[in-house]
Design goal:
heterodimer; A: 110 residues; mainly beta; 5-stranded mixed beta sheet; 9 strands; 0% helix; 44% strand; globular; B: 117 residues; 7-stranded mixed beta sheet; 4-stranded antiparallel beta sheet
Chain lengths: 110, 117
């Protein structure tokens, strides 16, 4: 079973920041949080991952709480092309397996 | 650009035939690859872990004799759906672990749409 819970859906206005929350209260100390997104009928696209420090790349920022029980993915200026299902995943330690939950469907609106 | 490719992107076959799907890591060597399938409006479900030079490890409930996995080289894993039936129609997606300096990252292929008539 997936170790994360996410809201089923969210809306965001184009040009605004999209903040996608994720709860992972049972995460272990050596488990990473990964974020992927899937646009309809395509393979998942890697976005970002982190262990305990906040991370930023050209796509997004990842904010992880100090107790590591939750995190937030931030898309700083959402565009219509960011409409997708976003998956927050805690990678199974030692195996590399990614167990997908239901994700959050983000709808970016004009 | 894409770092993992799949072939074919789409395949239609008759019931009872076998279908082979290829997954390639394009610019890195992947000792470990994974196979997922996804039914309409559902999330990805992990089917198996493909390890180069050894037998695949299947998730509970996945028939190993039906879904044959071969990982003969560090850049290629294949999934063969044997004696396919309409209920095997699905979106099959592979992924490969790309080693990194501190941590590795898993990249996904574009998927293969299988339709069994």
């Amino acid at each position: 079973d997936a170790k994360t819970t996410q809201p089923t859906s969210m809306d965001c206005a184009e040009g605004r920041a999209a903040n996608l929350p994720c709860n992972h209260s049972t995460i272990s100390g050596n488990e990473y949080v990964y974020w992927y997104r899937q646009i309809h009928s395509q393979g998942p696209q890697y976005i970002i991952h982190g262990l305990k420090n906040n991370e930023t790349n050209e796509m997004a920022s990842l904010i992880i709480t100090e107790d590591r029980k939750s995190s937030t993915l931030i898309l700083p200026h959402a565009t219509l092309r960011d409409t997708a299902v976003y998956y927050c995943i805690v990678r199974v330690g030692g195996t590399g397996k990614l167990i997908f939950g239901q994700g959050t469907t983000l709808q970016v609106k004009p | 650009g894409a770092v993992v490719s799949q072939h074919p992107s789409r395949v239609i076959c008759k019931s009872g035939t076998s279908v082979k799907i290829e997954c390639r890591s394009l610019d890195f060597q992947a000792t470990t690859m994974f196979w997922y399938r996804q039914f309409p409006k559902q999330s990805l479900m992990l089917m198996a872990t493909s390890n180069e030079g050894s037998k695949a490890t299947y998730e509970q409930g996945v028939e190993k004799d039906k879904f044959l996995i071969n990982h003969a080289s560090l850049t290629l894993s294949t999934l063969t759906v044997t004696s396919a039936h309409p209920e095997d129609s699905s979106f099959y997606i592979c992924s490969a672990i790309r080693p990194g300096f501190y941590t590795d990252t898993q990249y996904f292929g574009p998927g293969t749409r299988l339709t069994v008539l």
